[in-house]
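User: Hey, quick favor. My workstation is busy. Could you predict this chain's structure for me?
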Amino acid sequence: MTGQTRHSGLPNAPANRLALETTILTHGVPRENALSLAQELASIAQTNGATPALVGLFRGEPIVGMSDEQLREVLATPNVPKVNTSNLGVLMHRRSHGSTTVATTMELAAAAGVRVFSTGGIGGVHKGYGSHLDISADLIALTRFPVAVVASGVKSILDVVATREMLETLGVPVVGFGCDEFPAFYLRRSGAGVDARFDDARDLAAFLDKEMTRSGRGVLVANPIPVADELPADQFARWLAAAEQEAKPGREATPTTLAALHRISGGATLRANLALIRSNTALGAQLAAEMS
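Assistant: No problem, here it is.
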């Protein structure tokens, strides 16, 4: 997690930085496992040629490159709020700790000159979109910030096909790394396509460099969960149906559904989640190293 601990104005910051989010650490895994996971992801990034930059809010200050000491304090704080693009300013004003979502990580990373960000999966269009409006700010962030987001598609608990269609509507390029289909987090296939396929990290990095410079917008790099870690589709569907019965509405829908999934699956979904974030971190680091 070494790197600069400032939000912007980083003249001496290394060019090969890879942004990593704090939400998976505060809300995605048990707190006792969070620091070791952060250190593991940092090691993966370094092994693949990048400088890891953990993004979060520390005592109200946006940090791009959070230290172990800062992370320990955040993890020791109960009920750390999730920082989205709408409450970022308020939490800064109140000098709060905070863990950044995909959208907010993109915003802070872009301000600090970081061009690649690895996460598990982005948010998207929630199921039942026809009856109520519930769309993640992650999709809009991709139109606003020139950051390449490496993710295993969209979280499988959402409406994957509608999310893919929304990305097309918004003009967000979606490129697959080693795949022709848009992945669905725990599942390698969703039935939806990608705009282009790349099989070479150097070629992909060259495209990302040119495309983000040209457009000033982000690109979604779809990297499927490793084959060995993919969950059986039928079994996952049964787990999801049970977990959806326990989900809370609104902003709590995703975290409560994921928590129920982890429990109902006996930890299988959590293990898959960790496998894909490791894979995405490795790819993101390779891209960051090539773009430096």
